[in-house]
């Protein structure tokens, strides 16, 4: 008993501790780090060049082997042949050159002939006495000299004199045929590919081209030499094209990768230079980077804790005592992670797949029942990430994605199942549903791996899937009362159970004060709709409304809704006594709920639903009957005023229901006016000063109450009875 009191005292003090969230987050981070530390810690290996490996080493991740890639790229480049490009302009240039030589020969012949004709004409016109020796034709030597002035020196030097002599002595017809044959031969040969090493072969082809030329033998010899001179190399090395081709060959090489799980060296094998280089590339030899995995782990933990901080700040209002929920989450998370880590130790005795038996869904189930669904989903994701790291031993990589996926789907299955069936009796069914989902997930994993499994192995996997779901449900059922009682948490499931009409206290209200019970049900409907309209906890308001007037069971006949066929006892007693009896139902109800260990939220609402409002009827009655001054404070409820939106709305709904029930003919206009009046009176009386409800929310509450009341007091159709009298349909 002393331990229980000490624990309760600790929780009470912790709830108000300002730095509790920071401490819880630090502890969660520390537990996460310690549980995953060994899984990311780099293994120390005794590796030396040209030594025998003591164990089989696999690549922990996929990485590109740049040295091997560059080697393959260099080999691909070396296999690329040089690119030689055909210069088509060379054929036209050499044809033009040959044509120019023939044209120059023709010009020399024409000029020589003109000069001879001119001199002969002058000689003939001269008298015989004055005539000299008859002019002679231009000599071949003169023609050669004239031709040398018309042709470049490189051409003169490259061709023998006999070529020009033959051409100069040839007749115009021979020269024309020689020109055509030479141009044709040069054009045909130069339009073929002539690399440097094929020039002689190309020149030899000139003989074949000019074999059937219709010219004299001497002329053929001359034009053959000329054509061979005109044939030159027309294919040259293309630097840019060669480099581009090498680049394409280099780019076509697929990067050499060391794949995750690939065996680098087997146990008993010699560590060669190549193996040693790969081990160095993978970081097995570099002890200086041993701290990097820990930095990565710390960053991951900080990211996850940031998500927790964000969701708790956004999802759990301060009024719900956020510290309690953070502490609950910290305990659930820590227990789940410790359980996960403990089971992972069995991997060391060759149970590498033992991770599938972890009841990981327990944590998200408890978070869903005690906090809310969104935080439970974040927890599911976190457990999946942590589990994939914790159970990576024996797996080539930092993350065991199979286990991570299994944990994620298993946890989400439980959370989503309880979203639809939010009752304690459904937890075991949720466990069975989780087991069913686990079986499907494991089956999909085994099929995707496409491995050969024996029937015994498959059966072992399926048993782990079923056991994990059932144990998660059993642990949830066992731990849930501890959290609810120890932290005073009013979960959704607990609220649904307390709303059962067979609950002893509700049966007490129903049997002893049936009018109060009916009134409470009406108030519950009104408060539930109004709370949901402004985003408050409608279920809490509904269930708390069932119990808010339980204090009336102490003296039921003094409350008008229970005065059936009896006189009003207040007519026979003094206003002071009536006031005490009426006011006491709030404090009596709170004490009664406290005695039966009902949730604190119910106790607060029982005390606060009237706030410090004035009992106007008995106050004015006392003023009429007394000659001395009556203090208004004596006729006010002791309070406290409403501290939460739910308490404020229940107080409004309580007054509205009683007031509307007293109306002789409630119309929509009367109801709206009455609701506005009651809210306005409470607002002006300062009854909402201690809760965070806004004027806009009060306006929404008024509209919601009117809509619900219109449903209660809708118009009835009159039907004639058997006697012809009209009665209204209920």
Short structural summary:
By secondary structure, this protein is mainly α.
Q: What features would you describe in this structure?
A:
With 730 residues, the chain is mainly α. It is built from 29 helices and eight strands. It has helices at residues 2-15, 20-40, 66-78, 89-125, 140-150, 153-158, 161-169, 172-190, 199-209, 217-230, 239-251, 273-281, 292-315, 322-344, 362-370, 373-390, 401-420, 427-449, 455-487, 492-498, 504-512, 514-534, 538-547, 575-595, 600-608, 616-625, 645-661, 668-684, 695-712; strands at residues 57-58, 63-64, 84-86, 235-237, 257-258, 263-265, 718-720, 726-728. The strands form four sheets. It has a two-stranded antiparallel sheet. It has a two-stranded antiparallel sheet with strand order 2-5. A two-stranded antiparallel ribbon has the order 3-4. A hairpin with a 5-residue loop joins strand 7 (718-720) and strand 8 (726-728). Helix 14 (322-344) packs parallel to helix 16. The protein is elongated. The two termini are 56 Å apart. The model is unreliable at 724-730 (pLDDT under 50).
Distance between the first and last residues' Cα: 56 Å
**Biggest sheet character:** 2 strands, antiparallel
User: Proportion of β residues?
Assistant: under 5%
Considering DSSP H and I runs of 4 or more, what fraction of the residues is helical?
55-70%
Shape: elongated
Number of extended strands: 8
Number of helices: 29
Output mean pLDDT. Answer: 84
- Supply Rg: 53 Å
Q: Give the spatial strand order of the biggest sheet.
A: 1-6
Q: List low-pLDDT spans.
A: 724-730
| Secondary-structure class | mainly alpha
């Amino acid at each position: 008993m002393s331990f229980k009191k000490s624990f309760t005292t600790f929780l009470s003090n912790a709830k108000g501790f300002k730095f509790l969230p920071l401490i819880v987050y630090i502890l969660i981070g520390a537990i996460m780090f310690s549980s995953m530390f060994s899984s990311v810690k780099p293994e120390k290996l005794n590796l030396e060049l040209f030594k025998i490996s003591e164990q089989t080493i696999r690549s922990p991740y996929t990485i590109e082997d740049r040295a091997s890639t560059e080697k393959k790229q260099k080999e691909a480049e070396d296999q690329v042949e040089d690119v030689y490009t055909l210069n088509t302009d060379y054929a036209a240039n050499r044809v033009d050159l040959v044509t120019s030589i023939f044209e120059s020969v023709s010009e020399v012949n024409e000029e020589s002939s003109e000069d001879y004709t001119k001199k002969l004409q002058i000689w003939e016109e001269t008298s015989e006495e004055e005539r000299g020796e008859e002019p002679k034709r231009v000599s071949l030597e003169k023609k050669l000299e004239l031709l040398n002035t018309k042709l470049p020196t490189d051409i003169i030097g490259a061709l023998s004199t006999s070529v020009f002599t033959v051409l100069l002595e040839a007749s115009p017809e021979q020269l024309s045929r020689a020109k055509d044959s030479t141009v044709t031969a040069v054009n045909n040969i130069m339009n073929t590919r002539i690399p440097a090493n094929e020039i002689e072969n190309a020149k030899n082809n000139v003989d074949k081209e000019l074999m059937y030329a219709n010219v004299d033998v001497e002329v053929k010899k001359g034009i053959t030499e000329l054509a061979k001179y005109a044939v030159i190399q027309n294919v040259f090395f293309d630097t840019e094209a060669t480099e581009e081709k090498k680049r394409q060959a280099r780019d076509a090489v697929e990067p050499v990768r060391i794949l995750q799980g690939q065996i680098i060296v087997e146990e008993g094998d010699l560590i060669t230079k190549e193996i040693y280089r790969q081990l160095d590339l993978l970081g097995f030899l570099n002890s200086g980077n041993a701290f990097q995995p820990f930095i990565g782990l710390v960053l991951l933990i900080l990211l996850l804790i940031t998500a927790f901080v964000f969701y708790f700040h956004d999802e759990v209002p301060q009024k719900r005592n956020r510290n309690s929920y953070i502490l609950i989450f910290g305990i659930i998370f820590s227990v789940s992670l410790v359980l996960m880590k403990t089971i992972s130790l069995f991997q060391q005795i060759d149970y590498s797949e033992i991770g599938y038996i972890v009841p990981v869904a327990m944590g998200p189930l408890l978070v869903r029942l005690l906090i809310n669904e969104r935080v439970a989903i974040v927890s599911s994701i976190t457990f999946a990430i942590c589990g994939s790291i914790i159970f990576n031993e024996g797996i080539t990589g930092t993350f065991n994605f199979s286990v991570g996926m299994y944990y994620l789907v298993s946890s989400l299955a439980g959370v989503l199942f309880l979203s639809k069936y939010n009752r304690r009796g459904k937890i075991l069914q949720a466990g069975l549903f989780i087991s069913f989902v686990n079986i499907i997930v494991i089956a999909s994993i085994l099929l995707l791996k496409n491995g050969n499994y024996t029937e015994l192995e498959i059966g072992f996997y399926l048993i782990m899937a079923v056991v994990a779901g059932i144990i998660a449900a059993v642990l949830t059922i066992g731990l849930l009362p501890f959290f609810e009682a120890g932290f005073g948490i009013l979960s959704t499931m607990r609220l649904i159970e307390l709303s059962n009409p067979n609950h002893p206290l509700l049966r007490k209200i129903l049997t002893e004060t049936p009018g109060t019970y009916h009134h409470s049900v009406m108030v519950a409907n009104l408060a539930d709709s109004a709370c949901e309209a402004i985003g408050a906890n409608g279920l809490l308001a509904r269930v708390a409304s069932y119990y808010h007037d339980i204090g009336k069971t102490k003296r039921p006949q003094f409350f008008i809704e229970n005065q059936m066929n009896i006189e009003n006892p207040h007519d026979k007693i003094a206003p002071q006594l009536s006031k005490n009896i009426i006011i006491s139902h709030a404090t009596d109800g709170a004490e009664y709920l406290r005695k039966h260990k009902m949730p604190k939220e119910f106790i607060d609402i029982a005390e606060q639903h009237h706030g410090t409002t004035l009992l106007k009827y008995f106050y004015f009655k006392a003023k009429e009957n007394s000659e001395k001054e009556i203090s208004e404070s004596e006729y006010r409820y002791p309070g406290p005023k409403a501290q939460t939106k739910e308490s404020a709305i229940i107080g409004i709904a309580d007054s509205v229901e009683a007031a509307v029930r007293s109306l002789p003919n409630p119309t929509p206009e009367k109801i709206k006016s009455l609701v506005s009046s009651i809210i306005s009176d409470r607002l002006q009386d300062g009854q909402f000063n201690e809760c965070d409800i806004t004027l806009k929310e009060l306006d929404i509450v008024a509209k919601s109450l009117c809509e619900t009341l219109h449903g209660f007091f809708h118009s009835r159709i009159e039907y004639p009875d058997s006697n012809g009298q009209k009665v209204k349909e209920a």
